[in-house]
Amino acid sequence: MLSAKQTVHFKQVLVTRIAEQESILATAQRETRVAVARYADPADQAAAEYEKQSLVHKAAAARQTVKTLKQALERLRQGSFGECAECGGDIELKRLEAIPWARYCVRCQEAREQG
Ligand SMILES: [Zn+2]
């Protein structure tokens, strides 16, 4: 169970990360439009396509991260943040500091990765 102070801390961490990722997402979307406009010459189509794909990929990753972070924020509101979704035990604080959107404790995460 998190203390009130820890709850405030993790809320701050999550909100900051969401803002970061949303900014990455907005930038990638803007760069995609710029890239499309820049390569009007058909000779540059391959380069344009490559750049566009890489930006689309970047935007998709940022969008997914925002979703994951918002889910963690929602768990924080509901009081289930820091609780392992598998065994119901506490997720290690060190782990939450490193990965605030973690859903499993170290033991359950390792078990999932192995099998
Ligand atoms: Zn667990």
CATH architecture of the largest domain: Up-down Bundle
Parts with pLDDT < 50 across at least 5 consecutive residues: none
Cofactors and ligands present? zinc ion
Number of strands: 0
User: What count of helical segments does DSSP give?
Assistant: 4
Mean pLDDT across all residues, rounded?
92
Q: Helix-strand pattern, N to C?
A: HHHH
Main beta sheet, described? none
Report the span from N to C terminus.
28 Å
The structural class is: mainly alpha
CATH class of the largest domain: Mainly Alpha
Number of domains: 2
- Please identify the oligomeric state: single chain
The CATH topology of the largest domain comes to Four Helix Bundle (Hemerythrin (Met), subunit A)
- Gross morphology is elongated
CATH homologous superfamily identity of the largest domain: DksA, coiled-coil domain
Question: How would you describe this protein?
Answer:
The protein is mostly helical and 115 residues long. It has 2 domains: 1-81, DksA, coiled-coil domain (Four Helix Bundle (Hemerythrin (Met), subunit A), Up-down Bundle), CATH 1.20.120.910; 82-115, no CATH class. It contains 4 helices and no strands. The chain has helices at residues 4-38, 45-78, 93-98, 106-114. The two termini are 28 Å apart. The relative contact order is 0.13. The mean pLDDT is 92. It binds zinc ion. Residues 84, 86-87, 89, 104-105, 107-108 line the site of zinc ion.
